[in-house]
Amino acid sequence: MIKFVPEPHLLDSPRGRDWPRLGAPRTPGRAGAPANSADVVIVGAGPAGLAVASALWHHGVRDVVVLDRDGRPCGRFFDRIDRLGQRVLRSPYEHHPGVEGYRDCELLDFARLHWSRLTDVERREIRMAQAGHRSVVPVDVFEAYCDHLVTSHHVAERTWQASVREVLPTAEAVTVRANRFTVTAPHVVLCLGEERRSAPEAWWGGGTPPRGVSYWDDPVPARGSRRIVVGAGLTAAHLLTGSLEAGHEVHWVVRETEERYQCADVNSSFFRPEGRARFDGVDRSGRLELMGRHRRASIMFEFRPRLQQAEAEGRLVVHRGESVKEVGDGSGGVVCRLESGRLIEADSAVLALGTTPSIGGGLLPPDVVAERDGWPALDERTLGYTGAPRVSVVGAAAGLVLGPAARNIDGHRVATARVAASIAHSLRHERVPVVAGA
């Protein structure tokens, strides 16, 4: 069987183009304080939070407070993307934070509206999407579309810069305590995303990494011409190609015996209703097995020709089937000792060790999270915590209910549809008086 491998030029969409806006450019979230009560508080303003805020707007729920540590809708999301030098998204055009079932501009519609600003390659990808084939989305288009959603659904004026400290649910309401204020609402939605996975303590004793070592979402030290990249996923692929383009000699440490290339971050069957039904149809142990199998690190096919060429030319050295044992300071740089005993010396090292879902630990009481096997206890119909039904989740934390696609933007939309409808129904039929600061 012949396997089609997309060409690497699909990764090279321009970044930083000027796009028409509905209103003024986005500004950081408001630094003051919102009212001390609202109908809904959304914690997190990334793509999941934007999807929830937009859906609630269509349901007529406008008294919404969005709290975000950065204060800019999707700000942290795009900062991370730009730190990696990423120019396209793995998600196809049908995956976006817009709202289905309402008169709303979807991502493909938005791209076609701005046809004249697209490259020939990007236009071909749109034609592929219209024909029902796999396609890639330029980060530039996706960011402009998110900006369109923010403006058209009035999300920016509902977003406040804040670090949430506690989420305290009662039977009547939920109080959210942030660093500068407190807001109480009948419903809270946690859109916390995922956090980077830390290196094992044994690598250097825990705590702050040694000099010259950084994680993928931190600034990479601009040191010398030799670099080590540890990790097997899409983030590592972006770090590798960026380092190679900068002229570095790169060592890539991959724990598996071979890299894993595929079109999407999870099997595409899980994006479709029949795929989700397949996940629903198994017990907890079956779901855990599926999650473990389909959340393995993988890389878009487009990277393979570039990485193979760099390896053939000796600019990239791949240490397959190797695990890191220790990382420390070397003579003028970093030394990485592998389990095999092999030593790699470089000027810097970047760790891309994956991410873990933020499930509400540290914000909610432990008995509410009811963590088991790394997942919270959720109502499968509403995605509310079983121990606190007024608090819901959208994003990776819903993985054991929605399957591997929960961490993907399309999974956000599926979760948002359940959560927004449930909250709107409750607010219409079960109005609860809220006592601020309760």
From TrEMBL:
One Pfam family hit: NAD_binding_8
UniProt-annotated stretches for the region Disordered: 12-34
Signal sequence extent: none
Gene3D superfamilies: FAD/NAD(P)-binding domain (3.50.50.60)
The organism's place on the tree of life at top rank: Bacteria
Annotated Low complexity bias: 21-34
Listed PANTHER family: L-ORNITHINE N(5)-MONOOXYGENASE, PTHR38663
Protein name as it appears in the record: FAD-dependent oxidoreductase
Species whose genome carries this gene: Amycolatopsis heterodermiae
